[in-house]
TrEMBL record:
Protein name: Serine/threonine protein kinase
SUPFAM superfamilies found in the cross-reference section: Protein kinase-like (PK-like)
One term of GO molecular function: ATP binding
Species this chain originates from: Candidatus Protofrankia datiscae
Keyword Cell wall biogenesis/degradation applies: no
């Protein structure tokens, strides 16, 4: 796929409404722009100058990964990953001199947002970042958030493991699996959504948008690059932190944190996932199969089905 086939000029987007500002990008809602094959509202993620020059063809290759999926898989994919749909450029979309400004993506569904009080007593609507799940019950209630029970936490881990396994099966490294890049919902059923998907990469290719390791999710190997193995380390640590809320969980304390939540097989998965040897880390599919079996969870809180 040539990048020109998925490029749109900035002026074509029409009016933009500010949604959020981040360190690397500003996100705008697009009330006047739509795509015929996408029946949901869209947003424009505009890169800040700190991101540097972004290769258009690299982004087109990421977009092509989604388009190559069978229709049924693509539908599931679109509801679990905030994937880039178009490249936004500053000038003639057919010109080799066009500069990438950002990407068009689906608007995050309302179910992945939460409303919580601010210090001034006002309510604020913000994405349901998974870092909330790491907090204890008192802290979550102080934020006005429901504290997920054991069954819901188990289910969220299951869904995240499946999602990472799916990406890895497609040869895709997610990279920055972190508390801010995983959103969650509890209703109608617990589920997760991965964001910042424009920074993923195909195995063997360089990342299009530079991505470092988020603090608190650094792999144990110094200067370990983003890879399938680093994804697996972060997945294991993520699962432990979801199942052991209210604790400060480090790779060194992880097994102690979940010794009452997991059986021997689960504990072995934790140890292997957090190994300093990248080749020893179990595949995400191993975590999915373990969680899917319900092993280690209370009999009354087993997952109910796929």
């Amino acid at each position: 796929m040539k990048w020109q086939s998925v490029a749109v000029e900035r002026q074509w987007l029409g009016r933009v409404d500010l949604l959020s500002r981040g360190g690397q990008a500003v996100v705008y809602r697009l009330p006047e722009f739509g795509l015929p094959e996408v029946g949901v509202p869209l947003v424009y993620k505009e890169y800040r100058s700190i991101v540097g020059r972004v290769p258009a063809q690299g982004l087109a290759n990421i977009i092509a990964l989604q388009l190559a999926l069978p229709a049924d898989q693509r539908l599931w994919f679109d509801t679990h990953l905030a994937w880039p749909l178009r490249i936004v450029v500053d000038s003639d979309a057919d010109s080799a001199r066009a500069k990438v400004l950002g990407v068009v993506m689906r608007l995050i569904p309302d179910a992945f947002f939460q409303v919580s009080p601010t210090a001034t007593g006002r309510s604020e609507r913000r994405p349901s970042e998974a870092r909330s799940l790491f907090a204890g019950p008192e802290q979550m209630r102080a934020l006005g958030l429901p504290f997920p029970d054991r069954a819901q936490r188990w289910w969220l881990c299951l869904r995240l493991a499946y999602l990472v396994a799916f990406l890895h099966n497609q040869g895709i490294v997610f990279g920055d699996i972190s508390a801010r890049n995983v959103l969650y919902r509890l209703r109608p059923t617990p589920d997760v959504l991965l964001v910042d998907c424009d920074a993923v990469r195909k195995v063997g290719n360089a990342a299009v948008v530079d991505q470092g390791h988020t603090p608190d999710f650094f792999p144990p190997v110094i200067h370990e690059p983003q890879s399938i193995s680093s994804d697996l380390f972060k997945l294991g640590l993520f699962i432990v932190r979801i199942l052991a809320p209210g604790r400060t969980v480090t790779p060194e304390s992880a097994t102690r944190a979940v010794e009452d939540a997991l059986d021997r097989t689960g504990m072995d998965l934790v140890r292997a996932s957090l190994s300093a040897d990248p080749s020893a880390r179990p595949a995400a599919l191993a975590w999915y199969r373990y969680l899917r079996s319900g092993a280690g969870s209370h009999p009354r809180t087993l997952p109910l089905g796929e």
